[in-house]
Amino acid sequence: MHPSFQKIFSEIELQRKKTLDMVRTLSAQQFSQPPSPGKWSVAQILSHLIGGEKLSLLYFQKKIQGVETLVDTGLWEEVKMMLLIISQRLPGLKFKVPKKIVENTISMVDLTSIEKEWETVRTDLKSFLEKVPHQYTRRKLFKHPRAGYLNIRHALIFFREHVIHHTPQIKKLL
Fold this sequence. Notes:
The protein is mainly alpha-helical.
């Protein structure tokens, strides 16, 4: 695995484990029941995070097929990535979930299913990252709904920031 991927992958794996540990003490009802109409339960938040990662991985796997024809990211994508990080860290800033993510997110209601699914997605992601040839690490293989085309390192950073963005929401439900 490329060193720039390894560092961030290790970070998001630690973050995943800490996030799951944070919600272990919840009862099944607390875990799966939304706090009020129109609000997400802990299970729905985690399902959303997993769904986004899973769809991104499927997109990577599709785009890697024609990686030779893609262009590398540059300074503009680094700027967009910084803006994306800032947007994920601003408290109270909400984004409409893209329709494709809503349609493809399986709502899991129990912690065991969520743990299993997230671990599977991350295992598949690790396997994919290990196979990306070093000369293609900066190729535009990730399409963020707001920031546009970015590279895989950017995607991993977004996964980290996405969890950071939703952590206050989870903590509020604890």
